[in-house]
Amino acid sequence: MDKYDVLKRYFGYCGFRKGQELLVDSILAGRDVLGIMPTGAGKSLCYQVPALLLRGVTVVVSPLISLMKDQVQALNQAGVHAAYINSSLSEGQIAKALLLASKGRYKIIYVAPERLETPGFLEFAAKVEISLVTVDEAHCISQWGQDFRPSYLKIVQFIRRLEKRPVVSAFTATATGRVKEDISCVLGLISPQVLVTGFDRGNLYFGVEYPAKKDTYLLNYVLGHAGESGIVYCATRKNVEAVHAMLSLAGVQATKYHAGLDNEIRQQNQEDFMYDKCPVMVATNAFGMGIDKSNIRYVLHYNMPQGMENYYQEAGRAGRDGVDSECILLYSAQDAVLLRYMMENKEPNTEFTVEESAAVEQWDMERLRAMENYCKTKDCLRGYILNYFGEYGSVRCGNCSNCKKEFEEMDATEAAIKVLECVRQMRGRYGLRVVTGTLLGENTAKLREYRVSEYPAYAGLKEWQQGELRELVGQMLLEGYLEQTKDKYALLGETKKAQELLKGEARLIFKRCRQDSTRNAGAGAGVSIGKRSRSDILNSRGLSLFDLLRGLRTEIAREESVPPYIIFSDRTLIELCVRLPLNGQEMQKVAGIGENKYARYGERFLEVINSFTKGKREKLYFGEEDEALPGNLRGASYRGANREFALTKEQAEQVPYIEAALGATLAVALNALRDAECRKKISGAEIFRFMESEGYVKEKRVDGIWKKIVSEEGVKAGLFVGMRMSKAGKEYEDVYYGKEAQRLVVEHYLENTKEE
Predict the structure, then answer these.
(1) What is the enclosing helix (H) or strand (E) of 175?
(2) Is there a single domain that holds both residue 300 and residue 443?
(3) I need a labelling partner for 318 at 20 to 30 A (CA). Which of 355, 509, 614, 620 fits?
């Protein structure tokens, strides 16, 4: 068997997704790897496929019992023998599992980091050949990551104890450049193949909402998505209890999870969620790392998380199957105050020195500020996330709350000056609520107690809406005209930069959302607000079949005591409705259905499909077939053209070089030469990213506009900036590739070059 046979036989896919094949080949070649890939990109296949081809055993270090259990269940369902070693097993069960593994029963062993140095596991490791050690959730080894776990340092000691060093692979979904370097350094990776496939999750809609009543918004949203699986994250146990009680009273089948619950209750609640008995989970951030549930359709944040890493990891639990899903954060200024208070009062980490503790505390505060800026920005939210992780994002993604809204710019310099005057009059003694309430001329008991009506600034901006005034103050904080104290009170004060506004040396341009462009008027009407939902893909007949297949999946899951998504994901069920396989050969072409799963479940699902359609072909979806499939199933990527783009030497000799070509033009020419049956297409954007990685070009924001810039090296390589015309008849700059630059691109994509 080769890697393609393993991929199809056990996992049901005809080819690899972006980046997977490079890491698989590197591991098989004996090279360490570090893969930073977004949730749902298929990190596990990158080590599971080589694990089945390598001679010895693969040890996968994983931080959570639930994650190990899910992974092992999924592997066993696919026909792969695997086991896990953690505290949920008795010593007798652990001994038996290790004995069977030493006899060749298991190719893959999942183990908690705390178990690596136990006598039993060390004895096992000394007996068998360990070909590969994989570190899952690798950011846990970095003190700069959001989930640092000192127990992960045992991995390094374990590897050093082995008589023969195995290949070491590490994977995570969220890592800044600092964390990436830390992972590689601490784990001692040797000349690793590092792959960052990008952090973008195209099937996820990102939104930030500012509802006056969070509970109303939340309840309407969940009721509007009845029957769909979702997670609601809260910052505190108290909020978890309150939100769970509210949903339960409204008849929502919801469960809860936080550290204050008894361990057995937490475990039962988690299983109820995983098995779809309770489709909604209300939890603190104690829940979720490594949760492999593929059919989570939305993640709502009732409170702002502590940092972008936390948020992207938690939000990323939605849509792991590639189906369109939504990630919405409900923001209020009080969230940041609460988080600062929690940070200042958390238990110190005894593993750190005083200097390390101070550095980590400072880093935590920087992460919090970045998270606040995400909630306040008027720019593309997806772009903000990607830029945070060091990846250029589009100026407008078209699939986030900011891109869905229309903004109009207004000169708010005079209003900003009034804000500064109010803050100055109050001598920095009050926070956001009091300052904005004073400027609006509010007459609450609290403001009367503070006698704010005596300030000259009182009611100075009474014509403003409360929400917009708070946004204005937020923008002034972002642009450095105001600052907040770092204690729990977050008192407002002016900065030295404020003098630029007061002296007329600077202007403040405020982006105001046009009222007619807001979705659902911000009230949380419960209507799906992101990309198209499943009901937009399948027609009424398709939905009927989907529900029948989902019912059969639930029935089988109960029979076998496994979560439904482990049988088949929602993505696979949708593809079954679109492709309508009427026999076994056709069914095994559907993504996610390998030989073992077809042998176990294929006939039962075919029986339902044939009964529903009476054995006749019909169209159960809207639009073209490719459009109807979940995002990562569209196009030919799962029907043959799966290998990364490459050209043979003979194909490269046929490239029609011209004096100057745009990246898109060059991509079209190269795609026409490729082997269309087994090679993916390339895009002009991908060619640009390659040239960017070589230091030849870059994109830089100039006067608020993203511009492409060619470096001196790029000019020498044959690149230059020229003008082109848009469809709307407007001129703009773009990068052109001269003949020499075209040859560089072709050389990069030569098949033998890519395999070396």
Answers:
(1) none
(2) no
(3) 620
